[in-house]
Amino acid sequence: MSWERIACTRGTDSASWPASRSSTASCLVDGVDWxxxxxxxxxxxxxxxxxxxxxMKWRLVHTGTTSVGCNTNGAVASSAGPVPPKRCxxxxxxxxxKLYTFGGWALGKGDAKLGDMWFFVLHAGxxxxxxxxxxxxxxxxxxxxxxxxxxxxxxxxxxxxxxxxTFVFSF
Length: 171
Hints:
This protein is an all-beta fold. It has no helices and 13 strands. The protein has a 6-stranded antiparallel β-sheet with strand order 1-2-3-4-5-6, with no helix packed on it. Strands 7-8-9-10 form a 4-stranded antiparallel β-sheet, with no helix packed on it.
């Protein structure tokens, strides 16, 4: 077992490569596209990037209120509309052509943990906030999430306390 640094193609403009950051929410789509949302650098981010494991190139998917959608078949769409607030330490999962993000840590909102949930439609390049129902998890960051069948399983995190509870969200 060993590590190897990936030789990525980096363009000359800032829109061809994400700014340095930590605590992004990420997930792999169809074994090819690795999506990264938000994170913390000099400040919190609300952009969405995609790293192709086939081409070894980064693509800017969404930033601010202007988006360019990217998915495994290369579909591109431009759109304006709502965007999740800037955050780090959120979760990101993929199901049915959509990326779902929950919670995170927002600076500038009173240094608050978040409990909101959004989905991003890959082929349309649009974000939509989900009106959650049922037993909604408390606001949190630094939790983990995965997809099992048609459900998102969420565990742990940090909010007012450290959490050891598990929730299921049905898509």
